[in-house]
Amino acid sequence: VYKRQEKNVEYFHAQVALADWYLLFDRNRTAVRHYGEAYGFAAGLENGDELIHAAFGDVTPLPVPSNANYEAKEQFVGDVAAKSSGRFGVAEIAFDVSPYGSASGITVLTEETEQNSRVLAMLRRNVRDTIYRPRIINGEPVKSENVQFRYRYRY
Q1: CA 34, 103, 151: angle at the middle one, nearest 5?
Q2: Partners of 94 in the beta sheet?
Q3: Burial of 110 (0-12, 13-18, 19+ CB in 10 A)
Q4: Is 101 left (phi over 0), alpha (psi -120 to 50) or beta?
Q5: Which end is more exposed in the chain, N or C (fewer Cβ atoms within 10 Å of the end residue's Cβ)?
Q6: CB pairs under 8 A, 24+ apart, for 78-86?
Q7: Residues near 35 by Cβ (< 8 Å), separated by ≥ 6?
Q8: Is the separation of the CB atoms in 40 and 128 below 8 Å?
Q9: Buried/exposed code over 39-56 (b: 16+ C-beta within 10 A; e: otherwise)
Q10: Side-chain half-sphere of 149: how many Cα atoms within 13 Å?
């Protein structure tokens, strides 16, 4: 029984990852279908509610496939001097996420200063260019409004 449950959880995560991949590559209808299949599959499992909440309860930024070293919290720091300075800042951003994972209505909640203006501009671009796994309710992706993320950066 435990092995079967473990295989079911692996299958669920594989379906979610496949849907994420389709979303990243602008195959929205196929992504929605796979998210729905994963949701429906999990709904029939013993720990399905837990799996559904963990995968679909919040908006999740999807990693960009590339050869670059990608760290979601510090990817927008640009120069070598900043990486070795040891000084950190925090920026808070609010935005909406469409059912297909696109960000819009991006607002920087952190006060913009001369020291952080360049980093905040890079962060706005980063948020706009990132694809997000939308929240899924009853097997369907939904628009999320006023999603707030906090980013830590070096300067």
Answers
A1: 105
A2: 107, 148
A3: middle
A4: left
A5: N
A6: 78/118, 78/122, 82/154, 82/155, 83/154, 85/154, 85/155, 86/154
A7: 15, 16, 19, 56, 136, 139, 141
A8: no
A9: bebbeebeebeebbeebb
A10: 23
Per-residue tokens: 43:
């709904």
Q: Which residue do the tokens 């496949």 mark?
A: 18
Asked whether the beta carbons of 37 and 150 are under 8 A apart, the reply is no
pLDDT tens digits along 89-148: 889 999 999 999 999 999 999 988 888 888 899 899 999 999 999 999 999 999 999 999
Sign of dihedral through CA atoms 80, 128, 146, 12?
negative
